[in-house]
Amino acid sequence: MLFAAFAFFAFAQAASARNGAQSAADAAALAAAQDAREELVDGLTAAIGQGGDWLDWLDDESPAGAGATAAAQELAAQNDSALVGAAQPVTISGYPGYEVEIQTNYTVGDSIIPGTESMKAKAHAAAVIQPRCDFAADADPGKPVELDCGDETVNIDPEDFDPDDLPDASVMFSVHLAE
Q1: What pairs with residue 125 in β-bridges?
Q2: For residues 120 and 107, is the Cβ–Cβ distance under 8 A?
Q3: Where are the domains of the chain?
Q4: Which listed residue, 3, 42, 55, 96, has the most CB atoms within 10 A of its CB?
Q5: 3-state SS of the chain: helix, strand, coil percent to 5?
Q6: Dihedral of the CA atoms 92, 70, 56, 145 (nearest 10)?
Q7: What is this structure's pTM?
Q8: How far apart are CA 14 and CA 127, in angstroms?
């Protein structure tokens, strides 16, 4: 009976480490996607400033996300874990995002099961960036365009564009876990 109790305790230790790893992976994936979301808005600003067909700015399904890996590393570290490799761009259900893998800095701990004292938990997660705004199919990028972003309307006039008039990136894009 005592052996069974120790075995259940070992299982609970492993489950706790796994849950901690999954929480760290989820946070890291969300951080990477949120960083890329900010870069998408920066890309929109640049595209409007250059003229041309700026309405295609979201068609690129792989946001640059230059800071995505750094953002993921920071959130993993805050959860006592480390990023394994770099945040990887992915496309899931047609939406761009990032996938990460983490490993905990802590071990499962001592238990009755040999070898667990040095085992670290690993987990992976993916987060995607989903546009919240729609515009008329016949919109002309050279004329004022109205973006319907759910509860908020964003008006963009390429001839009189001020980047400070754009709302926060979270109004234009949602970021959520994909797996």
Answers
A1: 100
A2: yes
A3: 2-177
A4: 96
A5: 40, 25, 30
A6: 110
A7: 0.80
A8: 25
CA-to-CA separations, 103 to 56, 80, 88, 107, 122, in angstroms, rounded: 38, 9, 16, 10, 4
* CA max distance for the chain: 78
Residue recorded with tokens 């990023």: 83
Helical (H) or strand (E) element with 175: strand 173-177
Give the amino acid at 24. A
- pLDDT tens digits, one per residue of 65-119: 678 999 999 989 998 999 998 999 999 998 899 999 999 888 765 554 555 566 7
SS3 string, 84-151, reads CCCCEEEEECCEEEEEEEEEEEEECCCCCCCCHHHCEEEEEEEEEEEECCECCCCCCCCCCEEEEECC
